[in-house]
Design a protein that fits this description.
The protein has one domain. The protein is elongated, with a radius of gyration of 19 Å. By secondary structure, the chain is an all-alpha fold. The protein has two helices and no strands.
């Protein structure tokens, strides 16, 4: 389950209905808050992971290029 709060529950067991309703209501509240405060930026959870992976690949490529020359 991924909503605007960034909540992701990686499990095969279903959540209780009360917990799902609570999460949805909190996500709806947060989306209303985000619309009323446009300066608050909500980034995807994996953006930083992707940035670190790209930086690691670039560093590895530079190291390989330096060792070959």
């Amino acid at each position: 389950m991924y909503r605007t709060t960034g909540l992701y529950v990686p499990t095969h067991r279903p959540l209780p209905l009360s917990q799902i309703e609570h999460v949805r209501s909190m996500a709806d509240r947060n989306s209303v808050t985000a619309k009323s405060h446009p300066l608050v930026s909500q980034t995807e959870p994996m953006v930083f992971v992707r940035m670190f992976l790209v930086a690691g690949v670039i560093i590895a490529a530079v190291a390989v290029a330096a060792s070959l020359s």
